[in-house]
Amino acid sequence: MPTWKSFAKPAAPALAAALLTSSLAGCGTGDPGRGAPPLDTHRDVTVYTWWSTGSENEGLITLVEVFRQQHPEIDFVDDGITGGGGGSAKEHLQSRLETQDPPDTFVAHAGAELDDYIADGYIQDVSALYDAYGWTDVFPAELIDLLATEDGKIYSVPSNIHRANVMWVNPAVLREHGLDPSGRYDTLDAFIADLAALREGGVEVPLALGTTWTQVHLLETVLLGGLGHEAYSGLWDGTTDWNGPEVTAVLEDFRTILGYSTPTRMDHDWDHAIGKVADGESAFNIMGDWAVSGFGNAGKTFGEDYLAVPSPGSHGVFDFLADSFTMSTGILDEQDAEAWLQTIGSKEAQIRFNKVKGAIPARTDIDENQFTAYQKTAIASFQKDTIVSSMAHGAAIPVGHLTDITSATTAFNKQVLDGGGDVAAFQKALAEAASKAGAATATAGP
């Protein structure tokens, strides 16, 4: 098996000469047993994430601990910034890539979110690492299919598998109002009926919700629950008509559901919404399974104080996303970036990271009994349910398409907050976003 140094790119001639001079000047200072110091004496890896709060930050700290144990000769440099859901961070990252100031590696959602980075030449094909480290044998074939481009190349290493279509339920609130405490809803209509009953019963905010990206997340799950998995996936591959009456009906349901959510939602992020469910002010929140940390931090017990069930209408479906790490092009430290990716794919990192993050490991050679009761349900679902790709978290569509959907959702949400909500205009904007994305794909070619 090749070592992590075997994939290093030679330094540019002028830079190599300069490094050689400094290496000779410091001869004898290399690590014992490693022979002459390498030409590249810049032994660090710059890693860009937006994981600055909650379980995300705890997860990053855990990854760094494992990395330092596995590669003590390399310094970790936190090269990221804060940004809820990665929105502002992605904009900042894009500006750095465009100005040829890339981090060695950055976190991105596996799947279509990488398309623009690939087309612009900002990240490298890391398929060789899958063979070098045996990942093709321990990552599920279905996952590798989701990661690979049409020509079979893979451009990132997943650190986990998240489930997006999760509804977090406070069963005590439902019982108090005479409703089924299981939180299971096979249709959007049934869910909306209980939202109305809760509001009539005095629960001011039945559905806790946060800022823009969480509203796009809600839109995704409403589309999935209202259309079904085939038509939902068809929105991203062009086989479902965005202008169709079925989509109109679901968008009307989305407007209704927004009306039962937090009126100050633009002022809060996802963790605030989870807190409202944990303390019983709200009955529901729809959010990915990173939200489990919020209940843990509040001292709540899964299965008693809170439940995690598929979002309304999406039983039997696993809405997939994965945090993954890339290798940038044009960097000096490819061997050190590869060392970081090796850690990301390692069994120890996948176990320790996901125990903190609330997701499930991408690897299949891990004993599920090491994980929580919720995580066991997610593992079982991923193994048996229909898998679809998340729109809001980059698995289903490229960044540009998601940006347009986010803009349309922002405008629509403002209308709803003002007491309106033009579904026809919203639907038109979403259809135009899809048309624009399709045109961009056709122009880019294979």
UniProtKB/TrEMBL annotation:
Tagged with keyword Transport: yes
Protein's UniProt keywords contain Cell inner membrane: no
Predominant cellular place of this UniProt entry's protein: other
SUPFAM superfamilies, per the entry: Periplasmic binding protein-like II (SSF53850)
Assigned keywords, A-Z: Signal, Transport
Subcellular location: Cell envelope
Secretion signal, residue range per the UniProt entry: 1-25
Pfam family, one: SBP_bac_8
Tree of life domain: Bacteria
InterPro entries associated with the record: Bact_solute-bd_prot1 (IPR050490), SBP (IPR006059)
Function: Part of a binding-protein-dependent transport system for a sugar.
Family: Belongs to the bacterial solute-binding protein 1 family.
PANTHER family in UniProt: ARABINOSE-BINDING PROTEIN-RELATED (PTHR43649), BINDING PROTEIN COMPONENT OF ABC SUGAR TRANSPORTER-RELATED (PTHR43649:SF28)
Name of the protein in question: Probable sugar-binding periplasmic protein
